[in-house]
Design brief:
alpha+beta; five-stranded antiparallel β-sheet; two-stranded antiparallel ribbon; 10 helices; 55% helix
Length: 449
């Protein structure tokens, strides 16, 4: 491979210089150009948006796919730009097992029939779950992922460039400060020729060796003193260090020239020019970064829209599940002995409110009161008399709030007398408690033998 060693060395030097400068800033040993308060607020909001977006994205992925192995597999397929294979949901797998069990245990038995009905419901629930996962992935996860892998990477790149521009600007400021200090020192010294002993190591001078010998007129007056001290003659122009004769205590002229003030003026002008260029680049990069950071507001608006779509898809999913379970409950109510439970109470409904209240808050699906036939709502309870035989005792499993005057409100764990009338919906019974009577849902009762 063809390496550009000069560029590599230059980049390494720049990196090392910036690392040293950054470390000095952290320890307060170097000046740092501070950003304005509004810019700092934009940076803080951008970092918060990135961090919370990552957390929401990861937890939503866990919600949609609890299996970590499956999530890793989907991630690999995505990175390899390959289509993720279709995966059976847990509900569909449960439906498959129930159908196979019913086929083996006997599809004509009450247990087999019930397994088949529940399997069909679980299959519909699995299909609804699949649709929900697909919709949520497209409408919610994909926009969050695009922000982290697209917009945020661009923002991070521009922020790194801005950091480098700031370090360059601070370095130019320090260089200009040193040049001005040196210029001021040179101005204070004036045209005075510095003593040789101040510019060279003690007991050393610059002497010369060459093949030619110069006249006294070709040298400053001080060279005559040197020629008297060294009778062999003075031989320029190649200078090197030799021990100084202790008798020679002063050296002037060509041997130690002061730094010209014009040279320092040129150095200051060069440093000021570099500072202007660095300031221009810093301002330009700061403006680019500012525009990207202000775009976080548009990102929030986009994520808000995606969040609404996620809630709508989740509402639709749970509404479908509720409707499927109501249908299953209604079908199982027609099977004899299906709802005769054990002495242990079943789990209560999902919410602390009654199922009637919960059904009223759902966007779709029939309410519990709507399950009764239309003519049954106008049932005259005072004309209802219990049959001579067929009454049973039942224990109430959950609290139930009557939807109208034809229904009987129930409290958990109380005992009531129930019986059925000809033509009644099989999901409902007539319940009596003391001198009160009314329709009660079968699913809230444990029929006692």
């Amino acid at each position: 491979m063809d390496f550009n060693m000069k560029k590599l060395a230059s980049d390494a030097g720049i990196f090392f210089t910036r690392a040293v400068q950054f470390t000095e800033e952290k320890f307060g040993q170097a000046e740092k150009t501070e950003l304005d308060a509004h810019f700092e607020n934009l940076l803080t909001r951008a970092d918060s948006t990135k961090n919370w977006t990552e957390k929401i994205l990861r937890q939503t992925e866990v919600l949609l796919q609890p299996n970590p192995s499956a999530r890793v597999e989907e991630f690999l397929y995505e990175k390899l730009d390959r289509k993720v294979p279709s995966r059976v949901t847990n509900g569909e797998l449960l439906a498959q097992y129930m159908a196979e069990a019913a086929s083996e245990l006997g599809p004509t038995t009450p247990y087999g029939k019930t397994l088949i009905k529940v399997a069909e419901a679980e299959k519909r629930l699995g299909a609804a779950e699949r649709d929900f996962i697909h919709t949520a992935s497209i409408n919610f996860l994909t926009p969050l992922r695009n922000f982290l892998e697209g917009d945020w990477k661009t923002i991070s790149k521009e922020r790194r460039l801005l950091q480098n521009r700031r370090l360059d600007l601070d370095a130019c400021k320090a260089r200009l400060k040193k040049a001005k200090a040196a210029e001021a020192k040179a101005t204070c010294e004036g045209d005075t020729v510095p003593d040789f002993q101040e510019t060279r190591p003690r007991n050393y001078i610059l002497s010369a060796s060459a093949s030619a010998t110069l006249d006294d007129t070709s040298c400053p007056p001080s060279w005559a003193e040197w020629k008297e001290e060294y009778p062999g003659g003075w031989r320029p122009p190649c200078f090197f260090l030799l021990p100084l004769n202790p008798s020679v205590t002063r050296a002037r002229g060509c041997l130690s020239l002061p730094k010209d003030r014009k040279l320092w003026n040129d150095e200051v002008d060069k440093a000021e020019q570099e500072l202007r260029v660095a300031q221009t680049e810093f301002d330009r990069q700061a403006e680019v970064t500012r525009l990207l950071l202000e775009g976080i507001s548009s990102t929030h608006v986009n994520h808000l829209r995606c969040l609404h779509e996620f809630v709508e898809s989740q509402t639709t999913y749970y509404a479908q599940c509720y409707r499927h379970m109501l249908d299953l409950q209604k079908q199982l109510g027609r099977f004899p002995g299906t709802f005769v439970g054990t002495t242990e109470p079943a789990s209560p409904p999902l919410s602390s409110t009654s199922p009637t209240t919960a059904a009223a808050t759902m966007p779709v699906g029939p309410s519990a009161a709507g399950l009764a036939p239309p003519g049954e709502a106008a049932l005259r309870l005072e004309e209802v008399t219990p049959p001579a035989s067929g009454t049973r005792k039942a224990r109430v499993l959950y609290d139930y709030e009557a939807a109208d005057s034809s229904e009987l409100a129930l409290l958990a764990d109380e005992l009531i007398t129930v019986y059925s009338l000809p033509g009644m919906d099989p999901d409902w019974l007539i319940g009596e408690r003391g001198n009160k009577k009314g329709k009660v849902p079968v699913t809230y009762l444990e029929l006692l033998s």
